[in-house]
Design brief:
- The structure is a single chain.
- By secondary structure, the chain is mostly helical.
- It has helices at about 1-35, 55-65, 75-90, 120-140, 145-175, 180-185, 200, 205-215, 230, 240-265, 280-310, 315-345, and strands at about 100-105, 105-110.
- The protein has one domain (about 1-345).
- The protein is globular, with a radius of gyration of 21 Å.
């Protein structure tokens, strides 16, 4: 029992460290991707190829002057970014980062906790993130911050509906809310006869989920809550020092976690082609599966950045029209089509 708790504590620290490192170096990667697309060099002063730029940015955030507006609600002004950061980190505890590692005959699963309702947990935690944005925007007592917070709340509520409907079709097919069981399902486990990744069976559901993930993470072309040309900086206009850093870090952690969820739900998670035909040990397969999982996550993180520096921002009316008039009807149609196919193929 003691070794179990020690293992879980180590796993929590490792996952927490991975998420922080992913957030830090996502800022570096974002600048490099932007520089490549715009035919620039990007960060190249702090360390070889600018690799220490995220550390320099972190030190700058810690060293900057702490400013709290006199007219702000000081308690809520501090609570807002804390909630945003906390909810972003909490989502990572149910992600299956790998299979089983067998050490001295004892299996250790590379997942902090496997809820039977893991998918609902992710949705619930991510939904709470909007409170951090709303509280921070309102507590700033700044009209631009409030406009950004209202935009964020309306946008997240609108796109969560289509995202939830896209997941319903996936749940109908897999018959589970456990993220680990969904991964096993895509490997032909848990009695499944559908031995392909879920994106093969749910291409429309994947596309809907991907678009909604952009909106949930406030990423371009859905970055209306912080559109600099209209709202200065949106909901974090009045923030500085590490409070601003918490909001920025939370966005990148959310991007990393959403990439992990997309990879888990639609691209097999830790599964990779011919993994059962290599004749390797369980530990070797687990390590390779974890590497494959992070490669998939890295691809989607890059895709987020590619889209940001390629597409222009929507107008707000276009954002709402897409969410309510396009994505939700398509998601409902996807649920109906999935049910019909399952009935016709006796997959129920």
């Amino acid at each position: 029992m003691t070794s179990f708790f020690i293992y879980k504590a180590i796993l929590v620290v490792v996952v927490f460290g991975i998420m922080l490192m992913a957030a830090m170096y996502s800022t570096y990667l974002e600048r490099k991707v932007a520089a490549f697309i715009q035919d620039r060099v990007g960060p190249n002063r702090a360390g070889p190829f600018g690799i220490l730029q995220p550390l320099a940015d972190g030190i700058k955030m810690f060293m900057k002057e702490e400013i709290i507006p006199e007219v702000a609600n000081k308690t809520l002004f501090i609570v807002g970014p804390c909630i945003a950061m906390l909810t972003a980190i909490m989502a990572g505890v149910v992600i299956p980062w790998g299979g089983e590692l067998v050490i001295n005959g004892v299996p250790y699963v590379l997942q902090i906790i496997d809820f039977d309702f893991g998918l609902l947990y992710v949705f619930g935690v991510v939904s709470l993130g909007v409170y951090g944005i709303m509280i921070g925007g309102w507590a700033s007592n700044n009209k631009f911050s409030l406009f950004g917070a209202i935009r964020a709340s309306a946008q997240m509520i609108s796109y969560e509906i289509a995202m939830g409907l896209s997941i319903i079709a996936l749940i109908m097919m897999t018959g589970t809310l456990s993220l680990r069981e969904i991964v096993e399902f895509q490997a032909g486990g848990t009695g499944s006869t559908w031995n392909f990744w879920n994106v093969v069976y749910q291409p429309l559901g994947f596309l809907l989920f991907l678009v909604c993930a952009f909106a949930e993470c406030n990423r371009t072309p859905f970055d209306l809550p912080e559109s600099e040309t209209e709202l200065v900086g949106g909901y974090h206009t009045e923030y500085s020092s590490m409070k601003l850093g918490f909001y920025l870090f939370a966005e990148y952690i959310n991007m990393f976690i959403s990439s992990a969820v997309i990879s888990t739900l639609y691209f097999g998670g830790t599964n990779f082609p011919f993994m059962n035909d290599l004749g390797l040990s369980q530990n070797a397969i687990t390590i390779l599966g974890t590497l494959a999982f992070f490669i998939k996550i890295g691809f989607f993180v890059f895709f987020y950045m590619w889209i940001r520096w390629t597409l222009p921002r929507f107008r707000y009316d276009q954002l709402m029209y897409l969410g309510w008039r396009v994505l939700i009807p398509l998601a409902i149609a996807n649920v109906a089509i999935t049910g019909l196919v399952m009935i016709l193929t006796d997959r129920i």
